Amino acid sequence: MSEEQEKKDKPEEAPAVDPEREAKLKAAAEARAARQAAKEKAEAEAAEAAPPEPKPPSPKQPQLDRLVALVRQAAGDDAIMESYLNELNGDMPTLVIHNKHWRSIASMLKEHEELRFNYLRNVSGVDYETHMEVVYHMISLESKQEAAIKVRTERDAASVYSATPVWATANWNEREIYDLLGIDFPGHPDLRRIMMPDDWVGHPLRKDYEPLDSEV
């Protein structure tokens, strides 16, 4: 048999085992198994743990409840669409009311002897694409009680009765909302643009606004 044939027939020797490498692989596998076991144990303990204690009621809940009761008493049970405490704004009592009731509710909020919301702090408009809202933040200078009133309107022919006859400070805020969002305010004494030129096309804060010059 030739030397070349002997080399072909000779079985290949198994590669030498590297003890150090084998030890590292074993240690890595054990570490992965330990991490997985710890994770499963933590998940099991979390599942068995008692649920967290419920959040204590807000001290402003009675204010919200009373406000809801007074508004419904004055304007009817259907006047309020939604009521809640706004946690992101210090548990601000907040009402979402039907647009058709806003005119009478605005006067009531300022004149009612128990509420006396005689200072309108801010007015803002929001485009939610499906609808629009005008948000009125008010405070009673006597009791320091605060509230936010949201009035919804359709995006097409958006219209909310002006609060300016009740709170004069709404004047410029409503003009700005009219200018930038296109919400009409019937009853406003001087409703015209306040920031954009009178011949400006469109309302820049609407979600579907398309500027004439895309570079601007």
UniProtKB/TrEMBL annotation:
Keywords: Cell membrane, Membrane, NAD, Quinone, Translocase, Transport. Pfam families: Complex1_30kDa. Residues 1-44 have a biased composition (Basic and acidic residues). PROSITE patterns: COMPLEX1_30K (PS00542). Gene3D superfamilies: NADH:ubiquinone oxidoreductase, 30kDa subunit (3.30.460.80). It is a peripheral membrane protein. Its main location: membrane. SUPFAM superfamilies: Nqo5-like. It is an enzyme of class 7 (translocase). It catalyses: a quinone + NADH + 5 H(+)(in) = a quinol + NAD(+) + 4 H(+)(out). Residues 1-62 are annotated as: Disordered. Its EC number is 7.1.1.-. InterPro entries: NADH_DH_suC, NADH_quin_OxRdtase_su_C/D-like, NADH_UbQ_OxRdtase_30kDa_su, NADH_UbQ_OxRdtase_CS. It is found in: Cell membrane. Residues 96-210 form the NADH:ubiquinone oxidoreductase 30kDa subunit domain. NDH-1 shuttles electrons from NADH, via FMN and iron-sulfur (Fe-S) centers, to quinones in the respiratory chain. The immediate electron acceptor for the enzyme in this species is believed to be a menaquinone. Couples the redox reaction to proton translocation (for every two electrons transferred, four hydrogen ions are translocated across the cytoplasmic membrane), and thus conserves the redox energy in a proton gradient. NDH-1 is composed of 14 different subunits. Subunits NuoB, C, D, E, F, and G constitute the peripheral sector of the complex. Belongs to the complex I 30 kDa subunit family. PANTHER family: NADH DEHYDROGENASE [UBIQUINONE] IRON-SULFUR PROTEIN 3, MITOCHONDRIAL, NADH DEHYDROGENASE UBIQUINONE IRON-SULFUR PROTEIN 3. This is NADH-quinone oxidoreductase subunit C.
